[in-house]
Amino acid sequence: MNAELEQATQPDAKHIVRFYDSEEFLVAELADYAAAALRSEEAFVTIAMPAHFEALCARLCGRGLDVDALLAEGRWVHMDCERTLALLQGSELDAGVFAETVEAPLARLCKQHGRVRAFGEMVAMQCEARDYAGAIELEALWNGVFERLPIELLCAYPMASFNSPRGQQAYARICAAHGEVLPAEHHHAHVE
Q1: Which of 18, 59, 60, 103 could in theory staple to 182 by disulfide, Cβ–Cβ 3.0 to 4.6 A?
Q2: pLDDT, tens digit, for every residue of 36-75?
Q3: Is 178 exposed, middle or buried (0-12, 13-18, 19+ CB in 10 A)?
Q4: Phi, psi at 151, each rounded to 5°
Q5: Secondary structure (DSSP) of 67-82
Q6: What is the pTM of this model?
Q7: Distance of alpha carbon 192 from alpha carbon 118, whole angstroms
Q8: Which of 45, 70, 55, 61 has its CA nearest to residue 22?
Q9: In terms of DSSP bridges, do strands 76-80 and 151-158 run parallel, antiparallel, or are they unpaired?
């Protein structure tokens, strides 16, 4: 494994990858993940695509959580992943902009709430665009955050992004960049 992909050193830090086939499966799992964080008084961050953010909000409202209040009080922070990724990218990912745009808000939340859970899919956007090297580079930036902050990050990738020889190579590297790998739902159906 490359040194750039080594795992977290903070005791409470955790880097999880979830692969998925259907949007419905992702949103259902994400709602469980978010609800667990928000009900336990942890801070929660989403760096999500608009459709996933809206679907998550609807699910959490259906579970009785006051999404507007959580966002207003700042315990739940949302960043649009398309805009956030656009800020980070030039010809290459900018580590300084990542620190300012992503890591700094996480650090503030950790200081206020102790522990933060986050969901991110900027890496998924890169893989869907077949920018596998950019996804690996971004995962390495995230792994640097885990050395400094007690956060748990759930990344999500659609399996359709890996339907090529280059995609399969990237899939192996992405798995290696995470401390925990959760297979897509079709894998569960075959195993059970």
Answers
A1: 18
A2: 999 998 999 999 999 999 999 999 999 999 999 999 999 9
A3: buried
A4: -115, 160
A5: HHHHHHHTSEEEEEHH
A6: 0.86
A7: 29
A8: 55
A9: unpaired
